[in-house]
Fold this protein.
Amino acid sequence: MRARVDSILIGVLIGALGLWQVLAGLGIIKTNISDWKGPTQVVAGLMFIFSGAWSFFHGTLGPGGQDLPLYPWIQYFMVLPILAGLGFILLWDGNESGEFMITLLGILTFLGIVWYAVAKFPSRRARR
């Protein structure tokens, strides 16, 4: 029971941090850090929000939640935006800084997203 409460609490805290980061990235919350404005901060905040929602989701379902028929779909649609956000940030930062390796990591991340989207599609897994 304590692990479920911890997971819910961590999910709420991570989601709140992500919301703060999105609002700071959009310029709604004023910060002294000039680099905290722009699309990469908004995408990173959204990744935190999805990660917090994922942790909250696991905490509310408990140990038997993975047996629910909707579970693979929820997992699928929470993991894809997190991976897509990582790929976007790597590509954006790699192109801005001119670092080829960071851009290459972004491309590899997007190839991993395509693999995950095809290989882990929930209805495909259910047919096996």
Observations:
- The chain has a mean pLDDT of 85.
